[in-house]
Amino acid sequence: MEYNSPFILWQSELRVINAKNTQAREAFVDVADVQVGSRVLDLGWEGDCLECLQKTGARVTFVGEDIRAVQKAEALRTNGVLSAMPAQVISDAQVVFYRPAQRSAKGQVFEWIDQSFQALEKGGALYLAGQRNRGIRSYAAYLHAVFGNSKRAGRIGRVEIYSAKKEQDDPCQAPVDNRMTFELRDLPGSPYSVETRAGVFSRDGLDNGTRLLIDCMEVRPTDQVLDWGCGWGALGMVAARLSAKGSATLVDSNIRAVSCAKGNLRRNRICNGVARVEDARVLDQREKFDLIVSNPPFHDGNSATYPLIEGAFRALRPGGRLMLVVMRPEAYLKHIRRIFGHGSIVTQKDEYVVLHAHIGN
Ligand SMILES: C[S@@+](CC[C@H](N)C(=O)[O-])C[C@H]1O[C@@H](n2cnc3c(N)ncnc32)[C@H](O)[C@@H]1O
C-alpha cells in the first residue's frame, strides 16, 4: 500500500467509522489490523482501548509518563512501564498507538513521534489519532516529516487517525531537542541554574503563582519540607537551600517532571534534596514533614487538591505548616478549614492567592 502526504485524502482507503463509545474504541484498534502476538506499544491511545487491544491477543506494552496512568494499565493486567523515553523500553514494536493527551505540549508530542520511530522495527507502523482542534493536522505533518510517508487511515467522529510506516533505519529528520535552560537570580538562595523540557509545567521560566509562594515561604534551617507536585523543582530547590540542616523531598506523579527536578538538584549541587515519582494523593504515612508547599494542579479541580490537604494534615508534625498557592481560593480554603479547623489567606497578587494552615503544638 502506498503512503501519501497527510493532506491528500484517498477516499477509497479512508475508513470513516460511525461508532459510539466501546464500539468506537474497538474501531480504533481495528484500523491497525493488529494480529495475535503482535508487539504493540500503547502510548496512551483512547483511554481504555487497552482492554480492546488485549482482546486482539497482541502483546501490549503501555508506556506512560504519569504513575497514575501506568497503575491503571497494570490494573488491566497490561505490562505498564513508567518512562518519558518509550524507545528505551521497546525497540522492536510492530505497531505503536499514540493519541496525545488533551493538554500535551506540542514539543512533547513531536518528541514522542520521534520516540515512536525509534521504538518501531522496520516495517512497523505508528497510528496517531487526534482532533483537528487539538492540533492533529500539525502532528500529522510532523509525522510525515519524520517517517517520510503517512496517510490518513481513518476517522471516528471528530477524531482523525493518521498512520506512517517505518521504511528505513533512520528518521528523515533529526529528532527535536526540547531542552531549555535559564538562570534564576532573584530568589532566596540564588542563583539557580535550571533545565526543563517541553511537557513540564511552566517550562520557560518561574510561574507567577510559584514565585508568590516562594516570596512568603518561611523555611526554618532544620525543616523537613515536602514539595507536593514539584514540576521541574522550583519550590523544592529553594526550600532545600533554606533548610540547610533539614531536607526537601520533591514528589511528582510525572516522570518527565521528576527527571527535570533530579537534574536541577544535581546541577545546583543541592545534596539535601531528593526527587521521586509518587502519586502524592496518597502520602506514605511513615514520613513526616515540618512544611508542605505546593502549587497544585489546577486542571484536576478538587480531585488532587482535596487529597493533598487531607494528606498534609496527616503528614505534618506538631507545629507543621501547609502553604498552597491557588487561583480560586474559596473551595480550598473551606476544605482547609474543614480539615485543619482553621486556615487563612497569607497574601494575594493578580489572580494568585497563598493559603496557610498549621498543626497545633
Ligand atoms: C501546577 S504544577 C506545579 C509545578 C511546580 N511545583 C511549580 O510550581 O512550577 C502541578 C504539578 O503537580 C503534579 N501532579 C499532579 N497530580 C499529582 C499527584 N497526584 N501526585 C503528585 N504530583 C501531581 C503535576 O505533574 C505538576 O507537575
Structure description:
There is one protein chain. The chain has about 350 residues and is an alpha/beta fold. The protein folds into 2 domains: about 150 residues, Vaccinia Virus protein VP39 (Rossmann fold, 3-Layer(aba) Sandwich), CATH 3.40.50; about 180 residues, Rossmann fold. The protein is built from 10 helices and 17 strands. The strands form 3 sheets. It has an 8-stranded mixed β-sheet with strand order 1-7-8-6-5-2-3-4, sandwiched between helices. Strands 13-12-11-14-15-17-16 form a 7-stranded mixed β-sheet, sandwiched between helices. A two-stranded antiparallel ribbon has the order 9-10. Helix 4 packs parallel to helix 5 and helix 9 packs parallel to helix 10. It is elongated, with a radius of gyration of 23 Å. The termini are far apart. Bound molecules: S-adenosylmethionine. The site of S-adenosylmethionine has 21 residues, from helix 7 and strand 12.
Spatial sequence of strands, sheet with the most strands? 1-7-8-6-5-2-3-4
CATH fold call of the largest domain: Rossmann fold
Helix content estimate: 25-40%
N-end to C-end Cα span: 72 Å
Name every ligand kind in the structure.
S-adenosylmethionine
The number of helices is: 10
Note the run of SSEs as H and E. Answer: EHEHEHEEHEHEEEEHEHEHEEHEHEE
Alpha carbon gyration radius:
23 Å
Tell me the number of strands. 17
The gross shape turns out to be elongated
Mean pLDDT over the full residue set: 91
Uncertain stretches of 5 or more adjacent residues: 1-19
Strand content: 25-35%
CATH class of the largest domain: Alpha Beta
Counted up, domains total 2
Main beta sheet strand tally, sense and closure: 8 strands, mixed
Q: Please name the fourth-level CATH homologous superfamily of the largest domain.
A: Vaccinia Virus protein VP39
Secondary-structure content class: alpha/beta
Based on the structure given, which CATH architecture of the largest domain is correct? 3-Layer(aba) Sandwich
